[in-house]
Specification:
Elements lengths: L2 E14 L2 E14 L3 E5 L6 H8 L7 E6 L2 E2 L5 H11 E4 L11 H10 L5 H14 L15 H13 L5 E5 L7 H16 L4 E4 L3 H4 L4 E6 L2 E7 L1 H7 L1
Parallel strand pairs: 3-8, 3-9, 6-7, 7-8
Antiparallel strand pairs: 1-2, 1-4, 4-5, 9-10
């Protein structure tokens, strides 16, 4: 199985007013195609920083990162944007949908930058909206939808470009438990159908849905655990 993510000795430092914060301290990890990995740990441990570097929203101060076998060191901004658009889907806690656009237009956005024909865009958008059970809402605006529905749209937008990697940042953070459970069931199903998912979560109930848990503390990986259901499945 090929690696989708390869990180070696990743450090991230932030400098402000003569104070240096070491957000990540020598993180190394590999994530294979088809895995569902949960990154856990207390607030301020480096989870979101790690996800931002994986998603090419930020760059490491030191170390090497490859996404889908593509080295990312010393890339220009437009190169990082292109790789992110073609290889990575991102789901944010706050949904990050554009209220002035319809559901269909929000989901189509990642494809608009790829010179894809309108007919194919329509087909791909309708396909992923059906996957998240939101095809009947494609002409709605985000502010006409519940939080759970908006998060489903955000997942559809992450899926539409057929990315190698889906990054999910606290997907249930703004949802009640019922909607949170539904979103997690959707992510589990996507993973069963082949999507590689890395999820940051503080909720231990949901981190157990992953195949593997990685716990961070003070910018370092302190534990890494393959979940029991995977071991049973192999056996």
């Amino acid at each position: 199985m090929k690696n989708v993510v390869t990180m070696k000795n990743i450090h991230k430092r932030y400098d402000s007013q003569q104070i240096e914060t070491h957000a990540l301290q020598g993180v190394s990890l590999e994530i294979s195609q088809g895995e569902f990995v949960a990154i856990t740990g207390p607030s301020g441990c480096g989870k979101s920083t790690l996800l931002s570097i994986m998603g090419l929203m930020d760059s490491a101060s030191e170390g090497d990162y490859q996404i889908a076998q593509i080295p990312t060191k010393n890339l220009k901004v437009d190169q990082r944007t292109q790789i992110r658009n073609e290889h990575i889907g991102y789901v944010f806690q706050s949904f990050n949908l554009i209220d002035s656009l319809t559901v269909f237009e929000n989901v189509a956005l990642p494809l608009e930058h790829r010179n894809i024909k309108a007919k194919e865009i329509k087909q791909r958008v309708e396909e992923v909206l059906a996957q998240v059970d939101m095809a009947h809402r494609q002409s709605y605006r985000p502010n006409q939808l519940s939080g759970g529905q908006q998060q489903r749209i955000a997942i559809a937008r992450a899926l539409v470009g057929k990315p190698d990697l889906i990054l999910v940042d606290e997907p249930t953070g703004n949802l009640d438990s019922k909607n949170g459970d539904q979103v997690m069931a959707l992510l589990e199903n996507l993973n069963k159908n082949g999507s590689t998912i890395v999820m940051v979560t503080h909720d231990s109930r949901y981190s157990r849905c992953a195949n593997r848990q990685i716990q961070l503390l003070d910018g370092k990986i302190v534990t890494e655990q393959v979940m029991p259901q995977v071991v049973q499945g192999v056996a």
